[in-house]
């Protein structure tokens, strides 16, 4: 079975729930995180032992090592992130 390499865009409350689930699912690996807030991003990276992080979600979408993303941003930002993710082919 191929392991799907995931990134979570937005590491607030729902993003951490997604990260926790993705990091424990068979066939899934949590490999990337993105958040505009550097403190929250660093905290989540430590909590989930993720090395690939960025305050710019587009860097994760451009990363060929990432297969799919889970978008858990604030509703005001969700539309632009979702459109970019659809264009990249990395949607959940």
Please, could you describe this protein's structure?
The protein is of the alpha/beta class and 92 residues long. It contains four helices and four strands; from the N terminus they run E-H-E-H-E-H-E-H. The chain has a four-stranded parallel beta sheet with strand order 3-2-1-4. Helix 2 links the parallel strand 2 and strand 3. The radius of gyration is 12 Å and the shape is globular. The two termini are 18 Å apart.
Question: Key terms for this structure?
Answer:
single chain; 92 residues; alpha/beta; Rossmann fold; four-stranded parallel β-sheet; 4 helices; 4 strands; 45% helix; 22% strand; globular
Secondary structure layout:
Layout (H helix, E strand, L loop, with lengths): L3 E6 L3 H10 L5 E7 L3 H11 L3 E3 L2 H6 L5 E4 L3 H14 L4
Parallel strand pairs: 1-2, 1-4, 2-3
Mean pLDDT over the residues = 94
CATH fold-level topology? Rossmann fold
Stretches with pLDDT under 50, minimum 5 residues:
none
Shape: globular
Instruction: Please give the share of residues in helix.
Output: 40-55%
- How many β-strand runs? 4
Q: What's the quaternary structure here?
A: single chain
Strand order of the largest sheet: 3-2-1-4
CATH architecture: 3-Layer(aba) Sandwich
User: How far apart are the termini?
Assistant: 18 Å
Question: How many H/I helices?
Answer: 4
Give the biggest sheet: 4 strands, parallel
Sequence of secondary-structure elements: EHEHEHEH
Strand content: 15-25%
